Amino acid sequence: MAEYELLLSGVHYGANGDSVAGQKETDEMHVRTRELLMWIDRERPLVVLSPDPVNHIHRDAVMARAQGRRIGRVAFDDVEKAWRLLSQSGQPMVWANVKEVFMEEHGYVVVTVIADELLESRHPSASETDWKLWLSDLPLLPPSERLQKEMEAEYVLDNLYLPHLSEISISKLKTYIDIWLEGSRHDLSCEARQKCSYYIEQLMASNDKEVRRLAEPLKEHRRRICERGPLDELATVWWAGRQESRDVQRLWHQWRLKNENKLWLGLRRIDTMLRQLPGELYGDIGQMDVILSSLYYLNTPRKAFLSIMALLMLRDLTCRELGISMRPMTEDEYQQDGLIANPMEIPTTIGRVVAFGETQCDKAQKQTIQLLAQWLRDDYEQSHPQEIEALAGTEPLVVINGDVNGDVVERGGTKNENNIEK
Which among 34, 21, 76 is positioned nearest to 229, based on CA atoms? Predict the structure, then answer.
């Protein structure tokens, strides 16, 4: 038999059953959390661990209960170990003893489970999601400047500094760890998560206390990345800044050109893909904090994460263009496919001709192109103004030099009524 330690977190939710994620905690809530921690420390109750099917953050979450009440959940880094213990026990629950209680703002508890030596077989968890669908033939955002910093720091740490820890000055090591932390602050990919754990492991293995101390901010980063504060920043500040970036705006421009003036059809295409997101995440469209947190705990590969972010950002921008909210859609709501939305702004083929005229033509040619574009738009909307109908069966239009207005057009080389010379 062997003893396995598991960390329990989320004690503040157990102490405040009516609390909601993102809700500002009151002094009264902090008091209840501390009272629960003191009770656990004093009574050392038997703790029962079981799957938590209603946890919306991690679909493989494992809850912890004691004497009829919920006291927390297994920390996400220990979830796989908990599932292996559950699977090997052959029971829907396993019991654990309280080993240590830490009295902090939210607090956490260490429990131990006595079990046979664990086999190598793993619970088929969310980490085994097949991401092949998201790794090719999709819009892909290039790495941001922040991610480029992260990747640069990874290279230096992995190849130059960590293999020679005893030879590298603490200040240089700290500089690159700080660069990596800043770059990975909004990186929810499995690569970033695994790299963070690797750096912690390497630093903690050092005999130098100062080197081990450098692992503390990494531990804090890993622990807090999907807590409410960082999630709010991700879903608001980071999201808005990324959408306004040159990379995303270029992608949006290309998307609009590709979809011409059929943005409803484009929205349907995006949703066809997003409905295939694992964990039925399409139902959370519009709740960006929930989606980002779920993608983190699904161990999303970086390339798949960039593809998903590209589609989500294109969807958000498309919804804004169409004047609708960022929310799940039903099939009936796509019935506006093919209708012109904002015809003067959307870069249709006509719009591209006008844009070409703005930069390549003189004033007369430019105004003529704008006039023709307006007529063609009217015709496309089946408005059929009288001016266009009158052109049926006439000879081709001839553009003439000079100031152009609605009258400055000749047919078959004949001067118009304003008698402007060719």
Answer: 21
